[in-house]
Amino acid sequence: MEFAYTDGKRIMSEMETLIKADSSFGNIQLAVKKYQEATRKFQTAQAQKPEAIALDNIGILLTSLGERRKAIEYHQRSLQIFRAINDKKQQSYALNSLGRVYAYLGERQKALEILTESLSLAKEIKNKKSEGIALNGIGSIHNRLDDAARAEIYHIAALKLFEETEDVYNQSITQNYLGNCANNNKNYQKAVEYYEKAIALLKSLPEREMNPSFLGNLSDSYFQLGNTEKSFEYLNEAVKIAQTRGDKSNEAMFLQSFGQSYLKLGKINEAAQASEKSLAIYRTIEDPTHIVKTLYLLTKIKSRLGKADEAQTHIEEALNLVENFRAKIETGEMRDSFSNTIYDYYNAYIELLMERDKSAPDKNFAALALQANERARARGLLNLLAESNTDIRQGVDAKLLDKEIGLRNLLSARMENLTRILSGKHTPEQAEKLKKEVEQIRADYEQAQAQIRQTSPRYAALTQPKTLSLTEIQKEVLDADSVLLEYALGEKESFLWIVTKDSFQTVELPKRAEIENLARLTYDALVARNKRVKFETTDKRRARIEQADIDFLDYSKALSKTILAPAAPFLTKKRLLIVADGALQYVPFASLIVSNSKTEGQRTKDEGRFLIETNEIINLPSASTLAVLRRELNGRPLALKTLAVLADPVFDNQDERFQTSGAKKKNAPKFETVALTKNTETVLAKNLKRAVRDFDFEENEEGINLPRLPFTRREADSISASLPNNQRSKMLDFDATRTAVFNNELSNYRFVHFATHSFLNNKNPELSGIVLSLFDENGKEQNGFLRVGEVFNLKLPAELVVLSGCRTGLGKEIKGEGLVGLTRGFMYAGAKRVVVSLWDVNDEGTSELMVNFYREMFSAKKLSPASALRQAQISMLKDRRWQNPYFWATFTLQGEPR
Q1: Which residue in 547, 625, 623, 621 sits closest to 584, CA to CA?
Q2: How crowded is residue 883: how many other Cβ atoms within 10 Å of its Cβ?
Q3: Distance between CA 563 and CA 797 in Å, rounded?
Q4: Sign of dihedral through CA atoms 788, 794, 798, 802?
């Protein structure tokens, strides 16, 4: 093709013709040559914009060929030119292309930074197409990190933009992305609908060739639905297109799909052949993320073929690669998502090592498996603990710090607004708009945090915390009085490692499904009192709870027999360090019944003892976490004061305390002041005795109601009564505020106690937290929500933080990280230990437990928090009113046991 270079408009026209012709070339390598030829001619003509466009397109094509690092060079050259000529529109497109390549290389943090920059630029110049492409890129990354719900927010926003601009091609791309989200959520029928819509839209554009990845994705969903005939039909078609075009990346992906399908069909040799071809191609191109997936697939295949050495080689290479990816991630949330995606890789490695241990018990495979389990668990928390004692903001550009603070405050304000909207009357449109706004601010805030870490001299000096080997666990974590019980639940079988200071045992347990079923039955029976059944009569409720109590005894004994009995010889007079997994994280081990000895309690239907009666129990995310916690807090001076309590906040503008505060409230009803003592109860106290201390935000018309928690006042008075005034601080009523939490006064106390409502939001986990006073003494509304993310910004070097509310120990469950929520936040803030709950607590019963707990710590005996909690629970167990585990077993201690 000859070009006339005297007319700029003609140059651009010819360039556009060249771009449109791309889809008709058929061969990607030929297309690259044509673009390179055009680039040289544009350089000669000093036509910078067409040259940059050609460079960008070469990068896109090289990405398809798998030459990713080379593609980055072309995209960066393109971007440099667009910046020089100040073409913001093309800068945004080039940034989108560059971000896509980094995502392929597994550098997702870098990809997100670039795509976020593109998104901001596109919004600035009001370029909806580039904005949509950036949104799709960001959504795709979140979906690959196993966060389909968050990904959908971006893809739906992108689809709306492309529909507004009638951009059919990018609508098809977005429908494909939405199909990926549905597929990730195992909603395969919905995924098929999205993929078929994507294909139909693409077919309506005669100038566009079929995208083979659409066909490959559709094939996968049909296979999951059991339609293997259609699945292979589409997969064969996809492979042919990829091979014809020389599209090595897609060809390798489709061969990998064949391998997965054959493995599931039991055609192991065919699976091996297809997967090895796929790996061979991936090794010739730069796609480490897919190399990892193929190595994992081959691990399973080689295991089935009895080739354990090859399987181990494959999975160890895969894990080395994913650890390299992990090291490049700067934000905690992305680390968590990444842990979720690679959890299965570690499980496969553990299962392989434990299988090898059966035939060669002297080869140390079981100890390696334990170390692998440690590598798989709580890595995000380990990084946070290593960072928590370091001021990573020192030496960072002040403008960046100001930006982070501004975004943090803006995010807090928007979350407060979203919380209020979701908790009252609202339309779906209002909620969706606010959620989208919160998501964008949150993304900007995360990127600001990532930039701070990248530019922080102190963060750069931090070393990645090391996970422990068996020998190191025995040396650094355990003493003569403790035993570690570490669990790993697998699809085929599960494992328990029993470690003492001088011994090591492994036990094979039933598969995950069996253990988790027992755990859920046990938990459901424990919390039957919290279940609300529509139109249930008082008698029926009583009968249901009585049956649940009977069922609990059976389930608890069965679960104990399954997961504890094998360790029985090692448990006598030992402190138990429990590293649970899966659904076991929801069951307090204190409530498990150990049979064959008489109980000290008043139970008549069981002859066993609760584990808390025989052992002190501490929960840990991993053994390595305790070692890092000790190292980071070693030598930290004790705070000078003893106890700070925040309790009995004001939630309602009709609260009777306005009458005694001097506030002038219009139309406020008159109430008598509620006086609570240990021996008296007001009508209000009786009505609220069983008030639940948490709520979930549900999108309904009634909104939510937060009842006052009168027993939290008695709780605060009682636990602080034995301390002198200069050693305690009680923040009650209008004083129990967010301001009190953030003014740094709490950092002067060794024990910090929150007695208030908590809230766990499964739909929007970032909204979860605890509730403090929502009004000041003049009746003015104020932000009283202390959310999980905000806890990370506290400085709270406490020996113990107690969250005396409902389900404060729960959070978003992330494979490999466990239950991510308030516990992690307070540990990052500096707490050595945290006491939290696993279900909705009874107000009066909790007050009784907490009074006993602090009495044991502050009395002459001065028991450790772990020992004090045990004694408090045993005291409740001996009291006929509170002997049911529902009242005392909900609270668990996490952190330092000594």
Answers
A1: 621
A2: 17
A3: 35
A4: negative
Single out the residue in 579, 606, 626 at which a domain terminates.
626
Average pLDDT over residues 542-559: 94
What Rg do the C-alpha atoms of the chain give, in angstroms? 30
**pLDDT per position as a tens digit, 55-76:** 998 998 888 777 888 899 999 9
Distances (CA, A) of 805 to 179, 244, 808: 40, 62, 6
- Predicted confidence (pLDDT) per residue in 375-420, tens digit: 888 776 766 666 666 666 677 788 887 887 787 777 777 777 776 6
The answer to whether residues 695 and 795 belong to one domain is yes
482 shares its domain with 564 = yes
Phi and psi (nearest 5°) for 521? -60, -40
Average pLDDT over residues 44-62: 88
Is 84's pLDDT higher than 70?
yes
Task: Look at the chain and report how many structural domains it folds into.
Answer: 3
The reply to whether 544 falls in a domain is: yes
Specify the pairing of strand 494-499 against strand 482-488: antiparallel
218, 192 contact by CB (below 8 A):
yes
Tell me the whole-structure pTM to 2 decimals.
0.79
Q: Where are the alpha helices (DSSP H) in 360-397?
A: 365-376, 379-388
651 in the same domain as 539:
no
Q: How far is CA 90 from CA 64, 122, 123, in A?
A: 21, 10, 13
What does the pLDDT look like over 670-684, one tens digit per residue?
A: 323 233 233 333 322
For residues 514 and 621, membership in a common domain is answered with yes
Round to whole Å and give the CA distance between 543 and 335.
47
User: Chain-centre distance of CA 830, in angstroms?
Assistant: 21
Place of tokens 């009784």: 848
CA-to-CA distance for 523 and 197, rounded, in angstroms?
43
Owning domain of residue 682: 636-895
Q: In angstroms, how far is CA 363 from the centroid of its own chain?
A: 36
- Sign for the CA dihedral angle at 567, 572, 577, 581 comes to positive
Judgement on whether residues 841 and 728 belong to the same structural domain of the protein: yes
Tokens linked to 212: 């083979």
Please tell me whether residue 864 adopts helix, strand or coil conformation.
coil
Segment 231-273, tens digit of pLDDT: 999 999 999 999 988 888 899 999 999 999 999 999 999 999 9
As a whole number of angstroms, the distance between CA 97 and CA 59 comes to: 8
Return the percentage of the chain with pLDDT > 90, whole number.
Answer: 48
At 846, the amino acid letter reads: T
Q: Does 681 lie in the same domain as 539?
A: no
Question: For the stretch 11-33, what's the b/e string if a residue is b when 16 or more beta carbons lie within 10 angstroms of its beta carbon?
Answer: beebbeebeeeeeebeebeebbe
**Could you tell me if 577 and 513 lie in one domain?**
yes
Q: What is the dihedral of CA 332, 336, 341, 344, to 10 degrees?
A: 130
* Chain segment 215-224, per-residue pLDDT in tens: 999 999 999 9
Give kind and range of the element (H or E) at residue 418.
Answer: helix 398-422
Residue closest to 833 by CA, chosen among 861, 805, 868: 868
Residue 816 predicted with pLDDT over 80: no
Q: Which of 441, 461, 481 is the last residue of a domain?
A: 461
Q: Compute the distance between CA of residue 767 and CA of residue 762 in angstroms, rounded to an integer.
A: 9
Measured over the CA atoms of residue 743, residue 747, residue 749 and residue 754, the dihedral's sign is positive
CA distance 848 to 882: 9
Residue 260 parent element (H or E): helix 248-264
732 and 798 part of one domain: yes
Does 77 reside within a domain?
Answer: no
Measured between alpha carbons, how far apart are the two ends of the chain, in Å?
79
Q: Tell me whether residue 736 is in a domain.
A: yes
pLDDT of residue 638 exceeding 50, the answer is yes
Question: Within a domain: residue 753?
Answer: yes
Looking up residue 710, the CATH number of its domain turns out to be 3.40.50
Question: 658 Cβ partners below 8 Å, 6+ apart?
Answer: 665, 668, 777, 779
Chain-centroid distance, C-alpha 32: 41
The answer to whether 835 touches 809, Cβ cutoff 8 Å, is no
